[in-house]
Amino acid sequence: MEILVKPCGEFFTNCYILDRKIIIDPGVGAFEFVKEYAKNPIAIILTHGHFDHMWDSKKIKDYFQIPLYIHKEDEFFLRNDPFGFNPPKVEADVLLEEGKINIGNYEFLIRHFPGHTPGSITIETDKEMFSGDFIFDGSIGRVDFPYSDSNKMKESIKKFLQIPYDKRVLPGHGATTTIFKAKKFLPMWLKYI
Asked: Quick one: which of 15, 47, 99, 179 has the fewest CB in 10 Å?
């Protein structure tokens, strides 16, 4: 699978394009990147609803006439930004839950990891996990934001630690890591939160 990535906006949010067809987390300024590199895209998937991950969703959705996917617990962010940045409002087409989904010829495993937001998810392919703001290289997503929940983050970390296999982890900000590498530092975060 070809994976293109560009850190977008002042928060350097990673926007990913998979096989030039699937767009993950199109934040501030992602439209031009997507317009240049996506070829007949078929879907936008958001790892969560924060403004820096969804800002250009409406522009991309309208331009390409493609559906927007987000976990059902984060759908409200698309209309109500608790940070006051007021990104363009957009409607979700598919509300996700945990489990496998098929989009075109692609199958993804959606895992629900609440904590950073109520509906934070990871998106897995055969070899990759797109972790949004749940897991970073050496860190985890913040739990001091509106609608964050430190107790749910602890439960999500414990759930993540049960994953028996390794994959490359592509986060919402910063460098890639792996599931096994993340497992080494996550117990420290469990104690810290």
From this structure: 99
Concatenate the DSSP letters of all residues of 100-117 into one string.
Answer: EEEETTEEEEEEE--SSS
* pLDDT tens-digit series, residues 48-77: 999 999 999 999 999 999 999 999 999 999
Cβ(176)–Cβ(137) under 8 Å? yes
Q: What percent of the chain has pLDDT over 90?
A: 98
Range list of H helices, the chain: 30-37, 51-54, 57-64, 150-160, 179-192
> In angstroms, rounded to a whole number, what is the distance separating the alpha carbons of residues 119 and 73?
4
Regarding pTM above 0.90, the answer is yes
> What is the H or E stretch that residue 68 is in?
strand 68-71
Domains of the chain, each with CATH number or no CATH? 3-192 (3.60.15.10)
Question: Tokens standing for 68?
Answer: 């927007």
Quote the CA–CA distance of 99 and 112 in Å, as a whole number: 9
Averaged pLDDT for residues 98-115: 98
In sequence order, the β-bridge partners of residue 135 are 140
Cβ-Cβ contacts under 8 Å for 181 (sequence gap 6 or more)? 137, 169
Residue 82: closest CA among 111, 118, 123, 135: 118
DSSP conformation class of 137: T
Q: How many whole angstroms separate alpha carbon 36 and alpha carbon 17?
A: 11
